[in-house]
Amino acid sequence: MALAVVVVLPSLPPPPPPPPEQIVVAVLPSPPPPPPPARVVVVVPARVRLPGVLRVAALALIYLGFAVAWVMAAATAAEVVARRAWGEGSAPVLFLQAVMYGAVKVCVCIILAFFALVVLLLCAQCVTYVIAPVSGSTSGFKKSTFGAIRPEFTAHFFRLLRPAVLGFVVDLAFVLLAVAGLLVEMMSPHVKGSISQGEMVGSVIEDVGIFGMHATVCFLIIPALVLSVWREC
């Protein structure tokens, strides 16, 4: 009887899978950002300092004007008293008249200088308006230039004059008294070679009105205005 030999061989392991494909990722550097647009830089030192300097100069002129007006009013009031005491052509009267005329000239010069400062301030604001488009805003110019015509400016102006209202009322009363004395003097009959009683009375009334008017300016109106400007500015 024939024998059949069966040989069982072990199964071979499956072949390993092929290695995956290698993927190479290259990171490229990002392009540099574009340069910022060119910007025009305008350096104007006067744009910051000039208006402040003009404001200080304007305040100095205002206080100087008050001082000159006080001297002028005081000289006029003293001239009335000196004329009554020592006569028309006396040395004190001539000296006080010279002081009064000099104060008037200085006051005119102060007014002209103040208007010149106002013109310079307007020119500075115009330069600011021309340069403002470079910085992209013109609101500062509009606020500083057109703010003067707003109702707040009028209210501020009357607030400055409020402390001197009583002085103005008293001064107006003395002005009317001086006008009344002048009318009495003009309406009185003139006596050749002498002064009539009506002219004398009218002259006294006129001098009292002039003295009171300038004394009110010296001791009531100007001090009130100076204090008001000092508090507000």
Topology:
Blueprint: H1 46-86, H2 91-135, H3 139-146, H4 151-161, H5 165-187, H6 197-232
Helix pairs in contact: 1-2, 1-6, 2-3, 5-6
Overview of the molecule:
The protein has 6 helices and no strands. Residues 40-48 and 140-149 have low confidence and may be disordered. It has 2 domains: 50-132; 151-232. The chain is 70% helix and 0% strand. 12% of the residues are buried.
- Count of discrete domains: 2
Strand fraction band? under 5%
Class by SSE composition: mainly alpha
Number of strands: 0
Protein name: CASP-like protein
Keywords: Membrane, Transmembrane, Transmembrane helix
Transmembrane segments: 56-78, 98-123, 165-188, 208-230
